[in-house]
Amino acid sequence: MEKPAITLENVKKVIGGKTIIHGLTFGIYPGEVFGFLGPNGAGKTTTIRMIVGLMSMTEGNIYIQGHSIKKDFKKAIKNIGAIVENPEMYKFLTGYQNLLHYSRMAGGVSRERISEVIELVGLKDRIHEKVKTYSLGMRQRLGLAQALLHSPSVLILDEPTNGLDPAGIREIRHYIRRLAEKESLAIIVSSHLLSEMELMCDRIGIIQKGQLIDVQTVNDFVQDEKQMSVAFTVDDIDKAVRVAAEQCHFKIVKTKSDGIELQLEKEQIPIVAETLMKNKIKLYGIESTAKTLEDKFLEITGGKEIV
Amino acid sequence: MSSMLRLIQNENMKIYRKGTNRIMLLMLVGLILAAGLILKLNTPSPKPHVNDSWKQALIKENKNLEKEIKKVPKESQSYLKKEIAINQYRIDHHLPPVNGLHIWKFVDLMTNLVMVIAIFTIILAGGSIASEFNSGTIKLLLIRPVSRTAVLFSKYIAALLYAVLMLVVLFIVSWLVGGILFGFNGLTQPYLQYHNGHVTETNMVLYIFKEYGLNGVQLLMYVTLAAMISSVFRNSALAIGLSIFLLMVGPTAVQFLSKYDWVKYVLFANTNLTQYITGTPVVSDMTLGFSIAVLAVYYAAFVLIGWLFFTKRDITA
Ligand SMILES: Nc1ncnc2c1ncn2[C@@H]1O[C@H](COP(=O)(O)OP(=O)(O)OP(=O)(O)O)[C@@H](O)[C@H]1O
Ligand SMILES: [Mg+2]
């Protein structure tokens, strides 16, 4: 198996006698989008700060493409592009001057590359204006631009969709998928927007109170629970209830004004439909509502409790 | 090395794109112009000397000074002695004094503005480190393949370069303003230096540069102090406020406490090196060498503390 681009080994952080991160161990592979999910104060930003070397680790180590961020900072950080919390840029400089600033620090970033990145994040028209005139969404885009400037192999984005409109969120999601699939970047995305994670990530790690309590692929996550509730829209509700109970032996979750809702597995949906139709019940629609990641997340973390 | 140059280039971009830093440069020029105009309007235009009448005048003045010297207390005598010696030197060497202001006298007066430059540079240096923390830009600044040490020193060097630029502007503008307002004919005036009862002639430019150099040491100390406070507390208001406060109050405080011997180890007793050229030292047994040694120790401590706090602490901004 290929080597992970980032490896965390038993990473701990203690601040003022309080353990904020309790020994995180995981790896992220090239081409993978890893979702870092957790309620407020779970320790997502703290972990990201340690990965990029802004905070020291109390224990453990982090390797980026094999280089320890502790001992070999320059070699390790070269491979990382990141946004930590909000993408704060120099407001009195233009977007372009900001990018020029970071390109000088990376070395080997050509003017062509700067233009390319500006084009990619869609800031071409406003790039020569001062950042103080930018909207939150535009700052987020500029943040993404500075993270991609030096063509890193690891991308770390702390809440990248914060402040973006739905179209912007979609766009970012597309970049992220494309960067992972086409350019094999290893990407960490932290977010509270759970529905977002579902669409964007390959794997999701749930962190709570500084502990990684679950890591699963998105598919496993969603399909974990096989039972789903399925709503059948019918004309004769009473008859449908009787038929479903007598002939299919299914538990009726509830009866609705326009139909019934059953707790089923996927394979049972056509059977129920057929039975209903055989009994001359008119079937207008079938709608299944799978358990969302959000339900799952709240189930695992036990609601909205903050550390 | 070239990576250091690029970092300094970045810092310069941030310095000169910020409105306040450009305004400070303009203010300096404005101050010189204002000072020149005020002096011009308040000093009567000098009358040209008629024959050797200036010699008679100086002889008369010296006689008065001789009388006065007997009346004043011992501490004030050295200044009068210096005046007498210089007047005598002029009489002996046929060097008529220029009445009123002349170009070099104006440039010399304007060396007082080095303290204003110090304040401007404190504002810049104190802000340049802490503002990265206040605005959160420090996060994106420190996740580059560059050591924190290099980032810190690029900021420090850029601030000092700004001070050097201001000093150059001060010299050129005060020379031009002095020349335009008071005439360039004073250019040939030598500087008469009084030292241990002897008067020697030195080049005016050399003398002015020496003044700049000695005041520059003071500037360097306060700017380094401001940079250290900025790095330790990550707060620009505190760094700027405290440094300027110390710059204003420190030297006066040590004068008050000058009867205690330990005062000579206090930073502010040593920052003003011109005390060895013009005035008397804060504590009488202090020497130039002593002050330089004390300053070197403080300087090393400031740099070390500032560096430790900048490179070793977590970034939580
Ligand atoms: N400098 C600090 N000193 C003390 N405690 C801190 C510090 N920084 C973070 N913490 C604590 O560490 C915990 C994790 O914070 P962190 O910012 O990593 O959470 P997060 O998962 O990013 O939350 P959010 O979703 O709100 O961004 C919190 O309980 C926070 O109070
Ligand atoms: Mg966070």
From TrEMBL, chain A:
A Pfam family matched in the record: ABC_tran
InterPro entries with a match to the protein in the record: AAA+_ATPase, ABC_transporter-like_ATP-bd, ABC_transporter-like_CS, P-loop_NTPase
Keyword Transport: yes
Keyword ATP-binding in annotation: yes
Domain of life of the source: Bacteria
ABC transporter domain segment(s): 6-234
Keywords annotated in UniProt: ATP-binding, Nucleotide-binding, Transport
Gene Ontology MF terms: ATP binding
Similarity remark: Belongs to the ABC transporter superfamily.
Name the UniProt record assigns to this protein: ABC-2 type transport system ATP-binding protein
UniProtKB/TrEMBL annotation, chain B:
Superkingdom of origin: Bacteria
UniProt-listed Pfam families: ABC2_membrane_2
Key word Membrane present: yes
Keyword Cell division: no
Transmembrane segments: 21-39, 113-135, 156-184, 204-225, 237-257, 288-310
UniProt keyword list: Membrane, Transmembrane, Transmembrane helix
Record-given protein name: ABC-2 type transport system permease protein
Species of the source: Scopulibacillus daqui
Upper taxonomic lineage: Bacteria, Bacillati, Bacillota, Bacilli, Bacillales
